[in-house]
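Page header: ASSEMBLY MODEL / three components / 858 residues total.
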Amino acid sequence: MIGLLASLLDGVLIGAVYGLAAMGITLIWGVMDVVNLTHGSLIVAGMFAVYALAGAAGLPVYATLPIVLVGAFLAGLALYWISVHRVIGQPPLMSLLSTFSVNLVLVGLGTAIWSTDLFNVPASLPGFSLGRYTFPGTHLMAAALTAVIAGVLYLFLYRTRIGKAVRAVSGNREAAELVGIPTSQVLALAFGLGAALAGVAGMLIATMFPFTVLSGDAYQLKSFVVTVLGGLGNPTGALLAGVALGLVEGLTTPFVPVSWTLVIEFVLFVLVLIALPGGLVQLWPRRRD
Amino acid sequence: MARRPFFWIIAAVVALFAALPALGNDIELRESLLLAAIYVTLASNINMMLGYAGYVNFGSIVFFGLGGYLCVWLMGSHGWPLAAALAAGGVAVSALALVFGLGILRLRGVYFALATIGVNEGVMAFVSTFQPWGGSSGIYLSPALFQPLGGPARALWIIYYLLVAVMAASLYLSYAVKRSKFGLGLLAIGQNEDAAAVLGVPAPRYKAMVYSLSAFLPAIAGGLYFFKSAFIQPPDAFDLQLSTETIVIAMLGGQGTVVGPAIGAFLYEQLRGWLLTSESFSHFQLVISGVLLLAIVLFAPGGLMGWLYRRWPRLRGILE
Amino acid sequence: MSALLEVAGLGKHFGGLQAVQDLSFTVEEGAILGLIGPNGAGKSTVFNLINGVFAPDEGRVVFAGRDITGLRPYRVARSGLARTHQIVQPFANMSVLENCVVGACFGRENLPLAEARDAARQAAQRVGLEDRLETPAAQLTIAGKKRLELARALSARPRLLLLDEVLAGLNPTEVERMIGILRAIRASGVSILMIEHLMQAIMSLSDRIVVLNSGAKLAEGPPTAVANDPAVIEAYLGDPDLAAKLRAA
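Prediction written out in full:
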């Protein structure tokens, strides 16, 4: 019983990082109605970035975070202008295909360089022990950093002028344009932010688990499950839903072989799509005033 | 339908496929055309969802793989004859697609696309642990199963002709659908789903129907292909790369047209052949596919046929 | 004449905003009912509630004796109710004829393709688009697109047409033409419920008018009575001379 509890708590920690990744998706989706199918590659990019910086270049692991953040942000900006800008007004099919195609390119390049080998990031922190169970220090650190980043994002969106511009554009792009906001640049910024979140999430995941070039697919699927669960365009929802998914994983991993986790998550995803297209938020009682 | 020139164009192409390898007993050509026929089949069928209704199905390969598994399993473990196993595979996969589609297609295209991304992973993970189907080792077929068809050599020819027939059926199906009332509804959905619904197009039902329809022939093609290989395992059955290539082919040739997927398959086949023989590029197949797709989406979303039709509008009356 | 469309106690809110409140009115068979009101009064929302884009929170919508409250849009279309949009939504890459054929195929009569083409041609003719049947919808002018929107809805041979600002954006000649078309449509037996901002037009076309303000019914009656209603005048402009201007038109 305590074992299950420990698994659940660990799930909360890991789930927070899933939530961080999902925030990347939901931010972009909420602001510009684009589903970023390069998300998985950005996560993997974050993983390899920390591997290269911490492993090869010898930097302390967590010190790489700001580098990964900025790097992923810049990558996001580039991605926006290359693959998203031209297709913004067109049917959603187009942006799906354009981001998908960039993902292909990145995965292809990654496989060419790193093949499908397993990689590990040397990160170890003193853990937190509760009786026989130890919560790995890396998990605790990852969750803590997630909270910090989520907090910073919140402050940015709600306490800065640029953040306000982002919210304005996501509400009504034409109106924002009319009041003088350079909407294309704001969209690029939002995309960069989403990419940064993905990259950092990748970095944190790399400190916790081994990975390959192809890991992006699984984490992308998790991100989508969390995004839909938390409600589209809702970063807080994404974070909470991430924790929820982490709980589900914590609940199932002691009993079910690892390869089934993905199947379960996919089934969950489909069920949520069918039953609760608005996310878990739909279940909360509506206010009538 | 038989009065239009396009009908006879398809017939001519099919005749070529059937006759050319037979003429010189050219096995190498046959194998190459067999792959082409599969590409055309997969691309034509995915085109009905993608090009007509505007819904991307990232997991279309699932139909091919499941059809393959069902056929191989029914023949290997239960001794079914080929025709029955193929038919059962086609029907079962279509039925599954209908159920899944009725659930998922009530939603917007984006949600559907996401769901289909996961379908491939999910089904492959499931099949990899499903022992009656050999789990991750797959299923081997005994060569004795080729006997009812007259031995391995003859069986391979029969399978080839059957696949050419499946390809022909796919082309005619996408043509017939496009000219039907059902197809008109799909096209309206692809243009503007909300406006179509307001006009009375029963969108959820139509989308589920085309999804199910687009599963049938690929499932049969899968059955034929893996029967021929006499071996099926998860990574081959649910080859994500083939899934991706199907989309690229449909977009390259011209989504929404009937002849587009066929042309796209031909062009892509050539490109792929060149890539595989070129030392430096063979690793970059995925990258090239990605760049190609991006270029098409950004600069020529109508693909080759889209460009041709804009240049010479009268072609639209002859081809489709 | 019996009521073709009956809206009773309709209510809808979005979050904290009450968009439509306890709205009731009827459209008689063969009549033209005008729906007017200041911007933001909820008129398009009423249309959305009638044709199923949103389900109402309260109230009922009864069409030709059938309760269609909350039915999905395609089912509402099947029962014989067609609708045009304020912002036109043509199927851009289809021709004028093809656009109309969609309407004819999936409307009340559920026609097969061949007969749908005939119905589509007839509808296109009624709005004056018969010379542009093969033109891709994207290439039409705004007036052409508005006429296409109307033709497409007509192709379904509906019993009731919901027109959302079908005159907006048209120049005076086009407006005159469209008014003539609408009168001919009514004469052919199709009832009309129309939202419009062009006062002269809607006053001259409508048999009765319903005035909406902030989601609730402000007034209802024949055009002249509504035009003279002080509450209506105040809601629009606060200008007592508006009534005189309207009568002079």
